[in-house]
Please model this.
Amino acid sequence: MEIPFRKFHGLGNDFIVVSGRGLPSALARLARAATDRHTGIGADGFLLVLPPRAKQHSARARFFNADGSEAEMSGNGIRCIAAYLVGSSNRKRHLAIETSVGVKTLDLTEAKKGQWTFRVGMGAPILEPAKIPFRAGDSGLPVIGFPLRTRRGLLPVTVTSMGNPHCTVFVGDFAGIDWSLLGRDIERNPLFPRRTNVEFVKVISRNQIEVRFWERGVGETASSGTGSCGAAVASILNGLTSRKVRVRTLAGALEVEWPDKREVILTGPVEYIAQGTYRYQG
Model:
């Protein structure tokens, strides 16, 4: 089977974007094959663009991780889908994309040849443990400073959701911790029934944090959209930053804003990488 694709990245977090029409039913297998960096195209994720269920919306999106598992949402991924849609019609500057966790709105704020910047309405963070989901026991709401058992012993963590679960660990520096190994451990902690994304956060100032990301179903990534939002929300909940935060990642910076009692706003770039036809043998 030959599948047309386009490839984009949002700050080094790369995605294959395809039309969801006419694909094989075994989507997890297809996602694993296409994202393989040796025998496939290679990417952190595999994104499907489908017709919207409501005609006033731009499209419907599905997000698959490199291991074939399906994610509820991707902040970098949805910007790549927006770039895919805008590339098909230069007149589109506002989009409404359906996801499994609601309709997300995106505004195109800057466009160059093969490069775009989008402002994304990510929705309000989910703080109730049962809805994250997180088996918090008698922990209060929000889940701040929870003593999570890890290979390094008990670590205080903040647990949130941006439609997908996030566990935030605050660190003094990254050199003194094997955060990749710890991220792998925390991702599959039994208190997270759907596994979790993990962010390691170093607070730089009231307006800036630096983050390392371990993504559920992917592993170490250069950046993460929902992870940046989760890290910023955790920093705000802990009183460590203001409500507008610049998130420094290994690949550049994202801007996250969480106005009081409103939705989180994520602003970041997308860059076109390539397009072609993927020969899938099933």
Remarks:
- The chain has two domains: 2-122+269-279, 129-262.
- The mean pLDDT is 95.
